[in-house]
Amino acid sequence: MTHSVQPHGRHRAPLPPVQEAPATPPGPRLPHSPRHAVPPPAPHAPHPAAPAGRPGSGPASRPGKQRDAFFDNAKYLAIVLVALGHAWEPLTDHSRTAEALYMTVYTFHMPAFILISGYFSRSFDMRPDRLKRLVTGVAVPYIVFEVAYTFFKRWADDDPSHPISLLDPWYLTWFLIALFVWRVTVPLWKTVRRPVPLALCVAVLAVTSPDIGDDLDLQRVLQFLPFFVLGLFLRPEHFQLVRRREVRLLAVPVFACAVALAYWAAPRMTSVWFYRRESAQELGVPWWIGVVMTLALFGCSVLLTACFFAWVPRRTTWFTVLGAGTLYGYLLHGFLAKGSRFWGWFDDYAWLHRPVGEVFVSLVAAVVVTVLCTPPVRRVFRFAMEPRMEWAFRRDAAELARERAGAPGR
Q: Could you give the CA distance from residue 304 to residue 257 in angstroms, rounded to a whole number?
């Protein structure tokens, strides 16, 4: 059996992306705009305005801005898969089927989120208003939840000495610090030639470098970097391409083969590779295996992510509105996911490891994360995830001029 179950130490588990500019509608007519131009408004606007720096959080867009139902649907479905992955994790030591599904989902759910984050970061630059939103939309929630998770672990795991360390992200908060680092490097990736191969080289160097350490969870930041850079250079035509009927039909056998391969690999490899938080040497293998695994996982992740996008609905559905709250679901469900381990629920109830229990756990995880993405929950926790903080920043002349002219300022 694999070693997929994470101990209660400072292991960080995955979660979700960030919205900077509204996406181009996925309809058949596509504009021929410059690669990095801000795309025109999309036909769906369920909320007022989302702070830059994270996709799928809070109020969707400012008045006059609209959201794309396709991307909101993708973010909601991906956050459900994140919750399912965390719910399946304690089951993987006793169920080869759960392990196979777990490995399949972990191959693409975070890459899909990160790719969308990169796609919506195309217009990011160092303009003061965007830097402000990066601070309030990513840095501040990171600090708040890093502290909150630390106090939760002290209480729930009876570990009063567990330290608060903003340099060593704990559990889900790794994604926020990674997103902050990726975002501030956007101008660099727009400047270099062949950015995706270069980012992949950075990931390969990271997986062969055991001395990087835990500060800012840099192993994950660097190993997941190629997906962000890939999203940064995608265009609307690429999403239109994967939503063709023949691609959707082909995605079914591809997913079936992926699950079958994961079922075969489950007792033969550790799923720790999918977390991308450790070097090859730390996993006890030669450096060249890390290179092979990084390249192989990148290819598999891109393939399954494309298959996932192929089946995401492009129309407005009942869960489209929940796509604006995926960061809420991501960060808040972590308390229940970790609490279930601290309190021994999976050890106390043996029936949870049987097929009926596995189905029950899956349904509970999907329902819980869905509720946490709803507008009432977002209103309650907006103070922590979308603080306005006008008092902390100066307003420059350009920003005031945009406000007077009624410009959206993005």
A: 11
The vertex-405 CA angle with 402 and 409, nearest 5°, equals 30
Q: Which two tokens stand for residue 56?
A: 């799928």
> Distances from the Cα of 217 to the Cαs of 115, 221, 278, in angstroms?
19, 6, 9
Q: Is residue 267 within 8 Å of residue 3, measured between CB atoms?
A: no
What b/e readout covers 156-186, taking b as 16+ CB neighbours within 10 angstroms? Answer: beeeeebeeeeebbbbbbbbbbbbbbbbebb
pLDDT tens per residue across all 410 residues of the chain: 444 434 344 444 444 444 444 444 444 443 343 444 444 433 333 333 333 334 444 333 344 457 889 999 999 999 999 999 999 999 988 889 999 999 999 999 999 999 999 999 998 888 888 899 899 999 999 999 999 999 999 999 988 988 888 888 988 999 999 999 999 999 999 999 999 999 999 999 999 999 898 889 999 999 999 999 999 999 999 999 998 999 999 999 999 999 999 999 999 888 899 999 999 999 999 999 999 999 999 999 999 999 999 999 999 999 999 999 999 999 999 999 999 989 988 888 888 888 999 999 999 999 999 999 999 999 999 999 988 888 888 876 666 666 667 654 43
Q: 85 in helix, strand or coil?
A: helix
Phi, psi of 399 (to 5 degrees): -70, -40
Tell me the one-letter amino acid at 117: S
CA-to-CA distance for 127 and 410, rounded, in angstroms? 9
The CA distance from 322 to 329, in Å, is: 9
What single-letter amino acid sits at 256? Answer: A
**Among 55, 79, 57, which residue's Cα sits nearest to residue 179?**
55
Q: Please provide residue 67's backbone torsions phi and psi, each rounded to the nearest 5 degrees.
A: -110, 160
Dist. CA 167–CA 223, nearest whole Å: 18
CA 204, 77, 38, 117 torsion: positive or negative? negative
- How many other CB atoms sit within 10 Å of the CB of residue 118? 30
Task: State whether residue 406 is helix, strand or coil.
Answer: coil
Q: Are 140 and 174 in contact (CB under 8 A)?
A: no
C-alpha 319/C-alpha 114 separation (Å) is 20
- Per DSSP, 137 falls in state I
What pTM was estimated for this model as a whole? 0.80
